[in-house]
Amino acid sequence: MPEILFVTWDGGGNLPPALGLATELARRGHQVRFLGHEANRRPVQAAGFEHEAYATARPFSSLAPGSPLAQLAMFGDRGMGRDLLDSLRRSPADLVVVDCLLFGAMEALRESGTRYVVLEHLYDAYLRGPWLRGPLGVGMRVRRLRPTRSLAGAAATLVATLPELDAGSRAPHATALDFIGPVVPPLGPRPEAREPAVLISLSTYAFPGMTGRLQSLLDAAGDLEARVVATTGPAIDPAGLRPAANTEVHRYVPHAEVMPAMSLVVGHGGHGTTMQALAHDLPVLVMPMHPFLDQPMVGASVAAAGAGAVVGRSAKPAELAPALAGLLAPGPHREAAARLGAAIRARPGAANGADRIEALLRPGLRGPGPGRPSARR
User: Fold this and answer.
1) pLDDT tens, residue by residue, 216-252
2) In b/e form, how buried is each residue of 221-239, taking b as 16+ CB within 10 angstroms?
3) In 3D, which of 137, 147, 142 has the Cα closest to residue 110?
4) Which residues constitute the domain of residue 209?
5) I want to staple 289 with a disulfide (CB 3.0 to 4.6 A). Which of 29, 153, 207, 361 is the partner?
6) Does 173 share its domain with 292?
7) Which of 374, 185, 145 is nearest to 273 (CA)?
8) Span 97-113, mean pLDDT?
9) Which CA distances in Å does 335 have to 331, 339, 340, 372?
């Protein structure tokens, strides 16, 4: 039976697409296991998969991400590559699926001739644009890594988004990409009669100043004639917030459970949460938490499609309140969100990604491991 190894990291929104794809592959009878940071162990095992923590790679936690230099060191960590090849020597896999940002691990796969698939959990336009051309990409090359060559060396590149939202789909290299569609959880039934309701959910990643940003949103939503559900995640202490009477604050509530009853989602522009909201036909108000990450691009694409709006992270409640009220009301933004939702539902990412991976596998033939030649050079 084919065995597939997923290689990931503790980045928050990058893990659910990998788990969704892994779950579909396991449902089809494949053996799937994960290699990642120790913090990934609990969610990976909760999904039913074996998890192996990096043995020598530098420690990293999304709750204490440190400086950009620390992130740079993690993405380019050759220790990940060594741990990955050691794992494959102990337990070979037919195929490796590697997170698109782990260039230290990716280079080890490419140089060893191990067959691998890259999973892009964000816009390809961001990865090959601001990321690779910006400070992080420059940092990879300073470390003598070859990120562009490693991306090109993959047997397949799965882009878990909608091509109509990703400007990268119009780039020359896009013909080599598989736009499988967003990997979102199964959609629950919608209540027949829904009261106006707003979900406010920022990142699980510990961005500086995020508690104050969330409080501004709660203050702005306090006068809405709507139920407000706010989730803090592990990065924000709910005890430090001052919710209004119409607001309930939770450390964690599965989005798949609450979104069917929502009318509007407010987020930081995380790709996964945004795609899940759109899959439920919900408009999105985006408050990016970091100007150099993909969040502004995600917000801009949703706004350009007419399905939401973007506000600055320093926006005050007086500025946020009319934006919330406008998106909560009826209008063309709801039709635009529904159009994108229909496109997401028509392009099921987990099923399409599993189809593409299965096309790469050959029954009874174990893929090349470390030191063994690859069929693709």
Assistant:
1) 999 999 999 999 999 999 989 999 999 999 999 999 9
2) bbebebbbbbbbbebbeee
3) 147
4) 197-345
5) 207
6) no
7) 185
8) 98
9) 7, 6, 9, 53
